[in-house]
Design brief:
The complex is a heterodimer of chains A (206) and B (392). Chain A contains eight helices and two strands, in the order αααααααββα. Chain A has 206 residues and is mostly helical. In chain A, strands 1-2 form a two-stranded antiparallel sheet. In chain A, helix 2 packs across helix 3 and helix 4 packs across helix 5. The two termini of chain B are 32 Å apart. The chains are: A mainly alpha (206), B mainly beta (392).
């Protein structure tokens, strides 16, 4: 099976390499810069806000949006992946990510969010510059332990190892309980099957 | 686990070095948190009767460092945690290490690479009672390396090639012989955006798990699946994946099995102050109980977070796991008689936080777990804690 996996990976990599060459040629032909969509902005935000650890590698736009929603970060009308990012949208999500929404004078007025950032000296002319002002969230809320454990995808599923207390939707959990052998268990094993190693315990928590 | 400790320390130093450099330049790409908790645990050994309780002091330091360039994002997170037990005479302290690393790079607008590594090193010392070992030394090193190469084939279509390598190593030779494993996964996914709110996926996965010791519970697992991601509204989204999987065991005495699998989850924000997440899943899964090579597992969870005021937040989560083990899925070990059995595990956790200011939080939490198993010990366990978190 391991050989099969290696062959599949190699074949796929070769196929993708040839596609990359074609794509580069096409990209050179059309060098026009695209506008940034909200879905793309969401993917950038989960990185700089330190939320990536609640997501699998290369999360989809929807996965990124889900974790931002859980942390109350969204444009005024909510996330619309295909919609182009406006200055007002950008200002709002930046302020929310900075956890300073309470300081915005008139939250119902989009210009107020922009003004607040301008007064703070935060540029919002480009997304790249704006994001440099963000830091990882100090108290992130995200479902990581259970959400990853219910997925059936071997590339994304949660294995049984983690730390004793992991934050799950803001609460501490021990994912899988530790399996401690009791005195009775040990005595029973020793008496009945002395030639067999004791039933292994699993590390904790999980 | 000497080598494991050195790996952990080396990685920690690697994580701290850029932090120090950045700090000296006055940058702000890093964060440093400290979390101190006092906890009461009413069943520290997960016993059915004759429970032992203990107070604990848990000290966690979390260091997070990001490098965000135009086409590249690099992040390191390191969190050591130290635990002192008031009533665990054999070994009063534990030290755990938790390291996450992520590297994202866009080669061009179409091609991107994402690598994520998760390292866990935990101390779970031997515990003895009346001169009898009740738990062997279970110190372990676990690492999961995950890579995804993504290519935007068309404006709406994306192809992803993924791989994963998990490694588990125990310190104790007896446990290592039965539990140490290597797990390899490869997969292809094609994602297509039907409309801006809906994406569909088709995928295939190959997974193989090889145990290091002579008792081989390993298997090869092949999956084909399809999924849907849908935004019902800008504040309500959900996804599902379903398909079929086949499992071929390394042990020739065990018959191959095939089963459908399904999972689904949703995130809902009914009001600006409330977030709800929920999910369910069912599949064949690696066995948590020795000497089984498989379990059929159903799992569900519901979580909610609500801001009572601007300073006070309440978080609640509950989960339920049902696992079915069959004797026909157990490898033959001399002297061990496998039987059919079921496990039910329920877990509930809640935590309230009060934000004193932008850098300080106090918190109180309660966790409860109950295990009802045909195959191992039943128990209930409660933990109550209060704590203080600060951003340095």
């Amino acid at each position: 099976m391991f050989k099969k996996i290696s062959v599949v990976l190699l074949a796929a990599a070769i196929t993708m390499s040839s596609m990359v060459v074609q794509a580069q040629a096409q990209d050179e032909e059309s060098a026009e810069a695209d506008k940034v969509r909200q879905g793309e902005l969401a993917q950038l935000l989960v990185n700089v806000l330190g939320l990536y650890r609640f997501l699998p590698a290369a999360p989809s736009e929807q996965e990124a949006i889900g974790v931002l929603l859980a942390n109350q970060i969204a444009p005024e009308e909510g996330w619309e992946p295909a919609k182009e990012v406006t200055r007002a949208d950008l200002a709002r999500v930046i302020v929310l990510a900075l956890d300073r929404a309470a300081e915005v004078e008139d939250p119902d007025e989009p210009e107020s969010w922009i003004s607040f950032l301008s007064n703070q000296g935060v540029p919002i002319d480009t997304i790249g510059l704006s994001l440099t002002n963000l830091e990882p969230l100090p108290e992130p809320i995200a479902g990581n332990v259970f959400a990853a454990s219910i997925t059936t995808d071997p590339l994304r599923k949660r294995t049984v190892f983690g730390l004793p207390d992991e934050l799950e939707t803001g609460t501490d959990v021990s994912f899988v309980p530790s399996q401690v052998l009791t005195l009775e268990d040990v005595v029973e094993i020793i008496e009945q099957v002395p030639s067999v190693p004791p039933r292994p315990t699993s590390p904790t928590p999980d | 686990m000497k080598s494991g400790k050195w790996i952990a320390v080396t990685l920690a130093a690697a994580a701290l070095l850029p932090l120090v450099i950045e700090a000296s330049e006055g940058g702000r790409n890093y964060q440093l948190h400290n979390r101190l908790r006092f906890e009461y645990d009413d069943n520290i050994r997960d016993e059915d009767s004759g429970k032992t309780s203990s107070f604990k002091i848990i000290e966690e330091v979390e260091i997070l460092y990001n490098i965000n360039l135009e086409n590249t994002f690099l992040s390191l997170r390191y969190k050591p945690s130290f635990v002192w037990w008031e009533n665990r005479e054999d070994d009063e302290t534990d030290l755990h290490h938790d390291l996450d690393f992520i590297f994202n790079h866009a080669f061009n607008p179409r091609l991107s690479l994402s690598i994520k590594d998760t390292l866990r090193f935990a101390e779970l010392p031997e515990i003895a009672e009346s001169g009898v070992i009740t738990r062997r030394n279970s110190d372990y090193l676990f690492n999961s390396l995950n890579g995804i190469l993504g290519y935007q084939v068309t404006p709406d279509g994306r192809l992803e090639l993924g791989s994963r390598y998990n490694l588990l190593r125990y310190d104790d030779d007896v446990i290592a012989e039965a539990e140490d494993y290597n797990l390899y996964v490869a997969g292809l996914t094609y994602r297509y955006n039907l409309v801006p709110e809906t994406a569909v996926t088709v995928d295939s996965r190959m997974e193989t798990i090889d145990y290091e010791g002579p008792i081989d519970r390993g298997s090869d697992n092949f999956q084909v699946g399809a999924g849907v991601e849908h935004m019902f509204s800008p504040n309500f989204l959900g996804n599902t994946r379903l398909g079929y999987q086949q499992k071929d065991y390394n042990d020739d005495e065990l018959d191959s099995e095939s089963e459908p699998f399904i999972d689904a989850s949703l995130t809902f924000v009914p009001s600006p102050a409330t977030r709800v997440t929920a999910g369910v899943g069912y599949s064949m899964f690696e066995a948590d109980v020795f000497p089984y090579a498989n379990q059929n597992r159903a799992r569900m969870y519901v979580g909610a977070a609500h801001d009572i005021t601007q300073r006070i937040s309440l978080n609640v989560v509950g989960s339920y796991i049902n696992s079915d083990y069959e004797a026909v899925d157990a490898v033959d070990v001399e002297g061990v008689e496998a039987r059919d059995g079921t496990e039910d595990i329920m877990q509930f956790s809640t935590r309230a936080t009060y934000r004193i200011n932008r850098s300080n939080w106090v918190e109180a939490g309660w966790q409860f777990v109950t295990v009802d198993s045909d195959l191992r010990q039943n128990y209930d366990r409660n933990r109550f804690s209060v704590g203080w978190k600060t951003q340095l």
